[in-house]
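Re: that chain you flagged

S.,

Sorry for the slow reply, it's been a week of failed gels. I finally had a moment to sit down with the sequence you sent. For the record, here it is as I used it:
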Amino acid sequence: MRRRSQLREPVPAMASGRARRKRPQVRGRFLFSGDEKLRICGVTYGTFRPDEARNEFHPVRAARDFAKMASKGINAIRTYTVPPVWLLDLALQHSLWVMVGIPWEQHITFLDDRARVCAIEERLRSAVRSCAAHPAILCFAIGNEIPNTIVRWYGHRRIEKFLERLYRLVKSEDPNALVTYVNYPTTEYLALPFLDLVCFNVYLESQNSWERYLARLQNLAAERPLILSEIGLDSRRNGEERQAQSLDWLIRTAFTSGGAGVFVFGWTDEWYRGGFDIEDWDFGLTRRDRTEKVALETVHRVFTEATFRAARDWPSITVVVCSYNGHRTLGECLDGISKLRYRNFEVILVDDGSSPPLEPIVAPYGFRIIRTPNQGLSAARNLGMDAAGGEIVAYLDDDAYPDPDWLTYLADSFLKTTHVGIGGPNIAPPGDGRIADCVANAPGGPVHVLLSDDTAEHIPGCNMAFRKAALQAIGGFDPKFRVAGDDVDLCWGLQKQGGTLGFHPAAVVWHHRRNSVRAYWKQQKGYGRAEALLQRKWPEKYNSAGHLSWTGRIYGRGLVHGLAQVSRIYHGTWGAAPFQSLYQRESHTVLSVLLMPEWYLIVLFLGLTTVLCQDYERLRLAALLFLLALSVPVVQAWRSVARATFPAVQSATERLALRLFTATLYILQPIARLWGRVQHGLSPWRKRAAGFCAPRLKQYQIWSEAWQAPTRWLEAVEEAVRPAGGPPLRGGDFDRWDLEVPGGISGSCRLRMAVEEHGAGRQLVRFRCWPRPAPFVLTLLVLFAVGAIDAELSHAISAAAFLGSTAALLAFHVVQQCGAAMAAADSALRQLHARRSLEGAEQKDFSPPRVQWEQPPNFGAGLHVNRLQQSTAADGVAPTGGDD
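Prediction finished late last night. Pasting the C-alpha cells below so you have them in one place:
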C-alpha cells in the first residue's frame, strides 16, 4: 500500500512560558525540544562596549534586537560572555535559545599557573550557577578557539584532558545541560568525544570547499549534532550583495548536509574586542545603527523555508523491512516508518516464515505484507525488491526505526549524485539498558566504511538504499547469505560492475544493539560464518592470513586500537596550516598480527608450553611469555574503551564499571568471530596455492616486438596467477614490489617488474620473483629454535623435543607455502609467455600504434609507470632463471 505524506520541515519549539518549554536534548545527530526536532537558526550577539556600570548588554536595545530577530525567523543567539538573567528572560519571551559562552584566559599559556587553573574552574562554576536550568539555555560553551600555538605548546592530549575536566565541572553544576567546546579548523585534530555537541567556526568563500569540509566535519562529529557556530562574510570587503548571496548557500548547504544548526556572525556590525571597537570589519546582518542589510532578508528567507524544496521531482521509494520472528521490535519499527516526512513512498514487509505470523502487528499500519516460508535474509530482501514499485529500494531492519527525515536525505543524495546505493549511520537508541550501551561501544557492530567523506566502500544492511535498476542488474542479493554478509556481498558486486556507493550522515536510523552477552556472542559467531562464505566468493578481498582488507576507513564506535597504531597530526610548516588534521598510521605487518583473532591461538599455545615445562627456569620464561601474550588483548581492549561514551552516566565509578564490561566484550568478540570462521572453513592454516617451486630468487625476461603499457603487463600477470595461487595483492604507494602472490599465512612471494624500451615499440620486460616468509612466523620460529637449543644445553629433553619440533614444523610451513607461491608465480609467467608467443606468431606486420594518455592504476611506487597507452601487438618470450 502506497503511503504519501507532505515533505515538511520540523518546527522548533517556540513556547513562551517556562513551564511549557522543554530543555533541548541530543538524539543522535539532531537536537530535540520535547518531541519536536530543533533546527537552530541563530546569530551571534556581542561582544559590545560596556557602559559606565560595566554592563555589556542594554535592556532597551536588546528588546528591540530580539523582537526583530524573532520576526526574521531567528530562534537562537550565541553570546561570548555569560548573560545576565534578565537577558535570558527576555530571550525566552521572544522564543530565543541562548548558547552561553564562558570566557577565560585561553589565549595564554593558562596551564602553567595552578592558581589560574583553579580560577578558571571557579569562574565556570559561578557562570553555570548563575543561569543553571534556565529554560532559554541551549548549551554552555566551555571554550572558543584555543589558539593552535597554545595547543601545540602543551600537546593536544593535555588540552583534551583539561577540556574534559571543564565539561565534568559544568555537568556537576547542571547535569541536564548540554555542553560543547567551539573548535575551528586549525585545531580540528582535538579529540573531544565527551562533548554533547560538536561546534565549529568555519569561514570559507567557495561553495565547493564548503560542501567538502562539511562532509568532513560530519564524520568528525560521529553520532553527535554538528552546529556551525560561526559562519559569515565581511560586507566591507566583499559588498553587501555578495554577503547575502554567500549566506544563502552557506546556510542551505549546512542544513541539507545534515547540520543541526548555524549561527551567522553576527547580528550587527557593532563589535567590541580587546578594549577596542572593531571598525574595519562588517560581518553583521545589520549595520551599527541597526539598519538592515540585504543579508538579513536573505537569512530570513532561508531560515523560514523548508530545508528541501518541495517543488523538486522527488523519486518514488519503496521501504522494505524483512523480519523473522521480530515480534518484539517490529511495532516500534513500523511506527517510526509511519512518521516519515516524505511525499512518495510505499512500505513492504516480508514475513520470512515467522511463527506466529506478523500480520496482526502490520495490519493497523496498512502496509503491504508478503509472507513466505523461511528462506533467509537475502531471499527475503529479493522478494521485497521484486515487489517494489519505487525507483529506489530502501532496506531497514526490523529492530531499527528511522529518523522522520531519513528518506528525504537519502532521496536528496540520489538526486544530486550518480551513486547506485546510499547509506547512513545507524545509532543505538537510548534506554536499551547498560548491557546494550556496552555492546554499542564494543567491536563487531554494523559500521560503514568510507573511501572519502561522502563515498563509501560498504554500507551496513540496517540502513541502505539502492536504485532498483542497479539491484536487478546484478541479480539482487545472493541467497547463500541467510543471516549476515549479504550487504557486504551486494556492495562489492555493485562496485565490481562500476557503480559507486554514497553516504549521507543525516540519513539516520536508530538500531537496537544486543542486550545480553549470549546474544552478542551468537551475533559475532554468525558474522564469522559470513566471513567464511564471503572469502569463498571474494578471495581477492582477503589477505594471506584470511582477513578482510578494506580499502577505506571504518567509522563508528567499537573500533580496536592496536598497540602499534600511532596517530600523527598534520600541523604544516611551523604549525602554520589553516586546516590541521589527525592521521592514523597503519600498523606494521609484524605488529598487525596482534589485532588478529588468531592471536588467541598463540596465547593458547604458549599456555600449553608453560604447562609442559618441567625445569623451573624454563617455566618462568614460558610463563612470562604467556603473560605477555595474554596482556596484549587486554591492553588493546582497555586502550579501545578509553574512547567509549555512555549517555547519561555522570558517576566515575559507574563509568569505570561500564568500561571494564565493554573491555570484556572486546576480548570475547575475536574469539567468537574465530569460532564462527573456523567452523565454516575460514582458517589461517588453509592452503592457498598448490605445487612447489624452490623458494629462491628467480628472474624472467620477455622480449616484445609490440609495445604494451606496464600496467597491462601486470594485469596480465594478475589474471594468470589467480587460478593457480588465488588473487594477488597489489603493492602500495610506498612499496618497491608490484604484486604479492599468497601461499598461506606463513609465506608468500613478491614480484617486481621493470620495462626496457628499445625503440619502435619493442620492449624487454623483466620480472624478479622472490620468497617472502611471514615476519611474525619467522619471529616465532627463531624464538622456538633458540628455546630448543637452550633446553638441549640444559638437558631438558622433553622441552627441547617439544620446542624443536615446533620450530621444525614452522620452518616446514614457511618453506612449503613460499614454494607454493613461487610455483604459482612461475606457472603464471610461463602461461603468459606461451600465450604471448602464440599471439606473436599470428602477427604479420608491425605498425607504430596510436598513442593516448591515461592514468594507470596504482601498482606501487617501485614501478616506473609509462603513462602512454598503445594498442597491443605480439611479442616473443624467453624465461630464464637466475640469482642476483
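What I noticed first: The CA atoms of residues 244 and 298 lie 6 Å apart.

Talk soon,
D.
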